[in-house]
Write a structure and sequence with these properties.
Distance between the termini: 18 Å
Mean pLDDT: 89
Number of helices: 7
Radius of gyration: 18 Å
Number of domains: 2
Low-confidence stretches: none
CATH architecture of the largest domain: Roll
Strand content: 25-35%
Helix content: 25-40%
């Protein structure tokens, strides 16, 4: 377990910024109530076995008593580095992304299962969409009852969605909560 170096921090923040925009400051400066201290601590990012964790500093202090070999996980795993060196957000980061999302999409109940099986979001399944989305933006996908289902990348802008045919792809799937069942061994 070690802090992220300069290039790793830049890559992680760029990926998070794609989804949360200026709310990235809220994530970094979020106060932590964990630990025995009466004053709130803060959260930080740590790297352990190619996985990036969002963890309170009080938990980091306690985790230093465990050897790296025996430390399996701590905090919230927000993503991982691939063998090629690129960074991918994982489904475990959904709570952080949903609370601070800049762009949101709500799905109709009929298309929720399709998304949870790993398919892209089609125009026919779109319930609502926030304004000012451009292609390539990070989008958090919600059910109509505001339950976060996953996240992806916008394939079309908000304006293009109005004239798109019902089978056109609006959001490219990246991760969904169905992965907890499909990829149980890998998480």
């Amino acid at each position: 377990m070690r802090p992220l170096d300069e290039t790793e921090t830049t890559v992680v923040f760029e990926k998070l910024f794609k989804f949360v925009g200026n709310n990235l400051k809220k994530i970094v400066e979020n106060p932590s109530d964990e630990g025995p201290e009466s004053t709130p601590g803060s959260y930080c990012f740590r790297l352990q076995k190619n996985r990036v964790y969002y963890v309170s500093e009080a938990l980091v202090k306690r985790a230093t008593n465990i050897s790296r070999k025996n430390l399996v996980s701590f905090g919230t795993c927000i993503g991982k580095y691939t063998h090629a060196g690129s960074f991918h957000l994982t489904i475990m980061s959904l709570n952080i992304l949903a609370a601070n999302a800049k762009h949101k999409v709500w799905l109709k109940p009929t298309s929720e299962m399709s998304f949870l099986y790993g398919n892209h979001v089609l125009k026919g399944g779109l319930g609502r969409i926030t304004d000012s989305i451009v292609p390539g933006d990070g989008v958090v996908v919600f059910s109509m009852s505001d339950v976060p289902l996953g996240f992806g990348i916008a394939a079309k802008s908000t304006q293009d969605c109005r004239t798109l045919d019902p089978n056109g792809i609006v959001v490219l799937h990246q991760a969904d909560i169905g992965e907890y069942l499909r990829g149980e061994d890998d998480l």
